[in-house]
Amino acid sequence: MLLDLEMLRIRFGAFSPVDQVTLSVDRGEILGIVGESGSGKSLTATAIMGLLPRIGGQIAAGNIRFDGTDLVGMPERQLRRLRGGRIALITQNPMTSLDSMMRIGPQIDQAARLHLGLSRSAARARSLELMADLRIPDPASVYDLFPHQLSGGMKQRIVIAMALAGDPELLIADEPTTALDVTVQAQIVQILVDLVRQRGLGLILITHDMGVVAQACDRVAVMYCGRVVELAQVDALFEHPRHPYTQALIRCIPRHDMAKGTMSAIPGVVPSAAAQPPGCRFNPRCALVADRCRVETPELRVGTSGNGVACHVAEAA
Amino acid sequence: MSDLLTVNGLSRRFSDGGLFRKRKVFHAVSDVSFTLKRGQILGVVGESGCGKSTLARLVLRLINPSAGQVQFDGVDMASLSRTDMRRLRQRMQLVFQDPYSAIDPRYSIRDALLEPYRVQGVKPKSTDDTVSSLLDMVGLNGSLAASYPHQLSGGQKQRVGIARALALNPSLVVLDEPTASLDVSVQAQIVSLLERLRQELGLTYLFISHDLGLVRYFCDQILVMYLGRIVEVLPSDAAPAHPYTRALLDSTFEPDPKRRRSITRLGGEIPSGYDLPPGCAFANRCPRVTDLCRRVLPTLTTQGSGHQAACHHPLAAVPEVVEQRSVA
Q: Structure pTM?
């Protein structure tokens, strides 16, 4: 496995917004992490990048093994060599990654010069090549532009080029298409899928969009309130979702072939980090809730198939 | 069913520059015509910058058109005096995309719900009853009346936004991306609420969205806009005739891994609304483009019942073909 998370717990003061997270991604594989706001998917990405201390959090328990080495407790100097190099991050808003005062090209060059030790001219050649790979029209002129001169979709491609510049093995894309129009979203998703297939990268695709998951991912981790509630192959997840939350989430998605008036919502709201219910965190909203769910926290048990579900009711079925 | 809203040749241009720079004209909405029947849900879809929000504001006369007219229940809005227009506004309301900025953070929920009465100079019989029945109508607990917006979740705030829009008993509600900033489970709650309210109150909706999947589920009829013009009007279950609608549909991922899309890459970029090409605005990106398209602007022509497309080379009505597994 390229990346293995085992029983990860993230702590902010007295709260643990992410707990018992176990998941993995291999080379050439796309793992989707889905969940709604507050499910802990972005925090998990932040933890993998080793950036939790920057936002006042810490890893309280568990391991993050990257290519066999545990990143938890690794000195910042070593982490810095991985970050932007072997592990790269693509964020939702391209402007959080781009420096608006700097021309496009040199921003892409940076990672290659820093992590691959390339000269200025070699880095430039490599950036132009990457831009062409990402189907950016006329790379040589775009190289000299400033970010504000590009459209949103083009900026997101530049951010992907920046992420690829350090020749990463693991790419984490946190809602990479959420801010984009659908036709542009489709192009960016296609680019990411092609990268994984052609270069053998491991990709963690964090999204709240079940359409994107169905289109691109091989395996999926569904998160709710900081826990992985279901881990499954993408086909199995959509055909036979096991966790009641996954089932409800799939029924929430509008589809044109649904009869009007049949969309079903999940009653209630996601509890805040300070008011988590005891037992299964989904129990107050669950249609299948049993007495046991209100007291005992279900654990995610991952079988040999790599699939698993954290639900007393589904396990008994 | 009678027409509640008739829009005829509606256009809006914005000009820019002037004193020291060359004057430039931006065509936000061009020559838009449609009718909306009482009790119907009409969806307006298109990508950012296609003019859908400007259209919503024109329909409500929050901005004035450069040309064309809007008739509401048979009355031309341009002919109304300020007082009459203000009175008419009770019957048409807007629900905003961003529930966070739509409600004044210093207002309690109670104040926010009573604001429309204050603005219109209408005195509700009993303010307490009015507030609690409005909250009840949108499925919120009456105890929230004393809360402030920051104490509510996004979904709750959007419910307040809807309750406030319904306070004065409107006939038409314009919904401008009402679920775009919400999670999908919350979106489903809001959509179900809107469906129920339409039934109970006999409302007519103009529903603006960029989400074709949602629009096809929720609406009866769909307007597809591209660069300020309607390129297609179609019943929500019809196969598209315009290549742009087809491309939009092909870019919308179904929540079903067995129906993965082969992504037909749209070439080119959306032209700027400042200098529109003489022919079809979609020509530079269209797979079916011919010389004719670049020269002559296509007009809306009938493709079937309730179905029109502005295209010189419309797609034949074929059932939707989905390529299997073409991405992997």
A: 0.89
